[in-house]
Specification:
Strand order of the largest sheet: 1-13-3-11-7-6
Largest sheet: 6 strands, antiparallel
Strand content: 25-35%
Number of domains: 1
Helix content: 10-25%
Oligomer: single chain
Order of helices and strands: EEEEEHEEHHHEEEEEEHH
Number of strands: 13
């Protein structure tokens, strides 16, 4: 199988161990979607996504094409090779049961069958448990397709209509990575009804990195990150 694709409904969760050299393409099917994602090294889950270092070393507060996502060991999990949106949120975290209940109420599986209201924290925990991980293994998460603005008082708000229907972002994985994700609402989403926005994901073989690769050349720090990957892959 050279490709695999599927649709993840809104308010659901998924995880997958993605091999180096694989591309994951996410598509926001209806617009205003949100994909919260954490990353781990499957060979050593103590190595995990570090968004503060990711932002600091690339001198940015947003994620878009040309940026790389770093582990806390200074290695690159993946690179953003294509992006229709231009701004993805790396700072707001995920929603929890108290937030979701206060904003949209609650419902049980028994009442709603498989459409009960889920929250991001519990979805992450369900997926982490499949790999022997739990609450102590929580790390920072990206919110793909979401943009957050900050006013003069420092109040954060979710920017409306950041991601039109059909928007996509492509991630090239530069080392083996355990990806854990959900499609629950962004924690700053104020939509009156619990949003259920589906996301299409596609896995395929990524093109080989060339000397003019935008992610490799977007900063000196990224060149060093790819060098750290090369040393790791040699078994050093």
């Amino acid at each position: 199988m050279n490709e695999y694709e599927d649709t993840l409904p809104g308010g659901r969760h998924w995880s997958f161990q993605i091999r180096r050299g694989v591309q994951m393409e996410l598509t926001d099917l209806t617009g205003d979607g949100n994909v919260a994602m954490m990353m781990y090294n499957p060979a050593n889950p103590l190595e995990r996504l570090n968004l503060p270092d990711t932002l600091k070393c690339q001198h940015t507060f947003r994620l878009t094409r040309g940026h790389c996502l770093y582990s806390d060991m200074g290695r690159i999990f993946c690179s953003i090779t294509a992006d229709d949106v231009g701004w993805h949120d790396p700072a707001s975290g995920t929603c929890n049961s108290a937030l979701v209940a206060s904003r949209w109420g609650t419902s049980s599986y028994q009442d709603e069958r498989n459409d009960y209201i889920r929250n991001g924290r519990d979805c992450f925990l369900i997926e982490l448990a499949k790999y022997g991980l739990g609450r102590r293994d929580f790390t920072t998460n990206v919110n793909w397709f979401s943009r957050v603005s900050v006013d003069n008082e420092g109040v954060m708000a979710l920017a409306p209509h950041n991601s039109p229907a059909g928007s996509r972002v492509a991630l090239r994985f530069d080392m083996d990575t355990l990806v854990v994700l959900h499609t629950c609402p962004h924690p700053l989403d104020q939509t009156p009804q619990y949003p259920r926005r589906p996301i299409r994901f596609k896995l395929s073989k990524a093109p080989a990195i060339q000397d003019d690769d935008i992610c490799l050349n977007s900063s000196a720090e990224n060149a060093r990150g790819f060098a750290n990957n090369a040393i790791y892959l040699m078994g050093a």
